[in-house]
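Practice problem: predict the structure.
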Amino acid sequence: MGRRPAVKGLYMFGGVGCGKTMLMDLLVASAPKEFQVERTHFHDFMLDIHGRLRHTKGESDPLKHVADDVAQGVKVLALDELFVTDVADAMILHRLFGRLWDNGLVLVATSNRAPDALYEGGLQRQLFLPFIARLKEACVIHNMNSPVDYRRLAQHTRGLYFLTPDRTSLLYNAFLECGEDSLAAAGAAAAGSGSVGNPGPVNVAVAMGRSLKVPQALGSAAMFDFDELCNRPLAAADYIALAQKFHTLAVADVPRFNAANRSAGYRFVTLIDVMYEHRVRMLLSAEGTPFELFERVITQQEARQSGLSAAHSSRSSSSRSHHSQSSMQMHGFSSSSSSSNVEDVVVDDQLGFAKDRTISRLTEMQSIEYLLAHAKQFAPHMVLALQEMHHKQKQHD
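Answer:
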């Protein structure tokens, strides 16, 4: 008998809210046990791979050993948000997945980027290109771009995103309410941090023996200032540790992003990705709506359309700034944004593409549908109340 042809996987890419993750989750929910499906986020998967590599000793080819170990327990890998920015990930993906595919693993992946746009502009990208070629061989590539963001069709609730002048105090009160509610539901003795009405600091274990100090924790809720989470050298591993410890996270004083806080913007994008993947309930106080937070972050193409160039993110003449401000208003920037110094604009393709996903996810995280999913996983006592609220909203609509 001839060898059976390898089963092709599926790589779905497209804009935010077009249903990529929903389709993948339907596959995971309906697949029979013999498919041995593992569903995970790209951040989590690569963190696990690097952890296994560190603990693999005495092997002539550690990466091959780790890949073979993964393939033993998984036939179908459902990988959400394949988005490569880390050079350490980029340099091992070809050999890692080459070995997994040789072992018969089937990859089902979602991404905001087409295969040819992965790791675009990254260091030593020529070494990454063989992974793209093999990905195209191993998977059916399906473009799911749609003009509709279905997440934004969800109805929103109040009390999760605070914009008013007293937003910090409102956020703190909401954090206390969520923390006390989790303690009441689980029993104060079992909750493990703080006591009713008295949040306190705790340390959370992070990968590689590190720990992260949480300044305020109460039950299953934690609260940070934005700078404590995104203006320090933290990464996905820290945020994953938080998501595994707390099911509600409050973040105070999220700023508008510009050239001065670009790095913090990248960390905020990663934070929201991780919290969304783990269905964490997010409470935020911010200087603007999700769209306004990122309105000064644009791609190279948007910069060209607006009369800006990459140089404007670091310098510009007064005459060209006046022209650029007029062009920015024509391309959807607010009047307050255009009246600010054009030098504040961030021209960055990676952050420019990622911002749409973050805006969409921040929007969805305020919806009844998201809160219902959160409640079913972490707060079953809230399910009936949320279902009733959802029913009333549908009747009102």
